[in-house]
Amino acid sequence: MEIKERIIEEAAKLFKVYGIKSVTMDSLASHLGISKRTIYEIFSDKDELLSSVLEWMADKQKEMITRILEGSESAIHAIFRLLENSRDHFQDMSPAFQADLKKYHFQIMLNKTKLSDMPDYKASVQIIERGIMENLFRKDINPDLVNRCLYSLGRSTMDFELYPFEDFSRKEVIKNVFINYMRGVSTDDGIALINKLEAEF
Predict the structure, then answer these.
(1) Interval 82-137: pLDDT, tens
(2) CA–CA gap between residue 31 and residue 17 (Å, rounded)
(3) Which of 2, 4, 136, 189 is least enclosed by beta carbons within 10 angstroms?
(4) Distance between CA atoms of 80 and 60, rounded to whole angstroms?
(5) Which residues pair with 137 in a beta bridge?
(6) Residue at 6 is within a domain
(7) Mean of the pLDDT values across residues 128-150?
(8) C-alpha–C-alpha distance, residues 38 and 31, integer Å
(9) What are φ and ψ of residue 82, in 5° steps?
(10) Which DSSP helix (H) or strand (E) runs through 30?
(11) How far apart are CA 84 and CA 53, in angstroms?
């Protein structure tokens, strides 16, 4: 593994556990067993490192979506697998990560959350189209609009300010917000499958 990729991966792990502000370039260098100068030879500052971390996370998410879509029994099975991954990922994430991102790195967050920059948005519309073909989602829905709504709902379920960890588990939020919307765009067969998978979620 190249040193740049190693720095990005380890920074991502530390940001996830401790938040962005708490992880200094000094502590990152110490964690990696390298000099701070080595980090600064690759990244001009912490913002550039954070941008690279967010891009790396988006790429990993795109790979995961493709892998799940290709390996799932149906579109709804794929969505539930994605929900499980998302639930586990964010359940383990420190609320400080999102809070720091909004408070200290808001412009970076805006730049990285444009629809055109988010590979998970482009990939996930295929799941909606597949669900229509499988007669699990209604044929009268607009796949692009439904996908945008599901995308927006999925992001909102991970909003720690709107749904604080101390009040709601991610599982509870996903069930009440995201899965209920899915029922609204599903056929009877789709709803039956959602009910089955929700009981196992």
Answers:
(1) 888 877 766 667 777 777 677 666 566 556 554 334 445 666 788 899 999 999 99
(2) 13
(3) 2
(4) 18
(5) 186
(6) no
(7) 95
(8) 13
(9) -65, -40
(10) helix 25-32
(11) 22
**What number is the average pLDDT over the span 36-62?**
90
Cα–Cα distance, 94 to 164 (Å, whole number): 12
| Residue 82 Cα distances to 39, 130, 151, angstroms | 33, 15, 12
Q: What are the CA-CA distances from residue 187 to residues 36, 84, 146, 182, 184 (Å)?
A: 56, 22, 14, 10, 8
What is residue 69's predicted lDDT score, i.e. its pLDDT? 81
CATH number of the domain within which 51 lies = 1.10.357.10
How many domains is the chain built from? 1
pLDDT digits (tens, 9 = 90+) for 164-185: 878 988 889 889 999 999 999 9
The C-alpha atoms of residue 192 and residue 198 are separated, in whole angstroms, by 10
**Region for residue 164 given its phi and psi (left: phi exceeds 0; alpha: psi -120 to 50; beta: otherwise):** beta
Task: State which residues form the domain around 83.
Answer: 46-200
The Cβ of residue 154 has, within 10 Å, a number of other Cβ atoms equal to 20
User: Which pTM does this prediction carry?
Assistant: 0.70
CA dist., res. 191 & res. 136, Å (int): 8
Please give the radius of gyration of the chain, using alpha carbons only, rounded to the nearest integer.
19
Task: Return the pLDDT at 104.
Answer: 64
